[in-house]
Amino acid sequence: MAFAVPDITLNDGRTIPQLGFGVFQVPPAETQAAVETAIEIGYRHIDTAQMYGNEHGVGAAVAASGLGRDEFFLTSKLNNGAHLPDDARREFDATLKALGSDYVDLFLIHWPLPGRYDGDFSQTWRTLEEFYRDGRARSIGVSNFTQHHLGRLRAETTVRPAVNQIEIHPYLTNDDLRAYNTDNEIANEAYSPIAQGAVLDDPAIVEIAGQAGKTPAQVVLRWHIQRGDIIFPKSNTTDRVRENFEIFDFELDGGAMGTITALDRGERGRTGANPDTMNWVPKS
């Protein structure tokens, strides 16, 4: 059965598929095959990053697909060691080369990095604005930015981020930040949408899945879709990659949605680093 993935319209007028395929932690040597499988299933939105070291595999899979470049929405992210303008320009050129494309659909600052480069992500953002204005980044955004980071960008720069990619899942609903993003017309992208698998054994989710005739992962991903999040689950298992794509033939009712949202644990539910305390240090 073919499923139509809905699009989200960004504040710059561009659209992004609400469901994509993520390649975080996919080994570089396995990335091309993994993305080719995702493309065969129907994914056209691929999320990678300089930090992951697998942009080349994404580009190779897109090239091998036989489909036009305009059939895909490709996202990558600026590495933590490249926030200074000249470094950002150099690494952005390297991303385009690795992807085999003269543009990227969405380019993000990966982390705000408090305490590093004096936290001057506004300067970094102005460099991304260069890529946006010359068309090599069709949209630009941020990742792991909180309200105060976004407020600083609003005060000090010109182009509003199109998306904010943040950790969101039933154990960390991140509702205050999601609402702030929405109020400022910044789309919410949810990474770790199933909390790296931690939510899949939750009794409430298992019960809802049984009632819906779906798997726990499908139920959680559907919860995201109905909340308006952009998601890109990842898996190296073909059956699970297909399973994650088959979430558009059912809906959760208001009771199920509320039950899942009520599982929120706040900061105790976070599986990744806190953006306000994550202080990246380069490897020696």
Q: Explain this structure to me?
A:
With 284 residues, the chain is an alpha/beta fold. The protein contains ten helices and ten strands. The chain has a domain of 194 residues: NADP-dependent oxidoreductase domain (TIM Barrel), CATH 3.20.20.100. An eight-stranded parallel beta sheet has the order 3-4-5-6-7-8-9-10. β4, α2 and β5 form a beta-alpha-beta unit. The longest helix is centred in the N-terminal third of the chain and has 15 residues. The protein is globular and about 55 Å long.
In short:
By secondary structure, the chain is an alpha/beta fold. The chain has helices spanning about 30-40, 55-65, 85-100, 120-135, 145-155, 175-185, 205-210, 215-225, 240-245, 255-260, and strands spanning about 5-10, 15, 20, 45, 75-80, 105-110, 135-145, 165, 185-190, 230. The chain starts with 6 loop residues before the first strand and ends in a 23-residue tail after the last helix.
Give descriptors for this structure.
globular, eight-stranded parallel beta sheet, two-stranded antiparallel sheet
Topology:
Layout lengths: L6 E3 L5 E3 L3 E2 L5 H14 L3 E3 L7 H10 L8 E6 L6 H15 L4 E6 L11 H13 L3 E7 L3 H10 L6 E5 L7 H9 L3 E5 L11 H10 L3 H12 L2 E2 L6 H8 L8 H8 L23
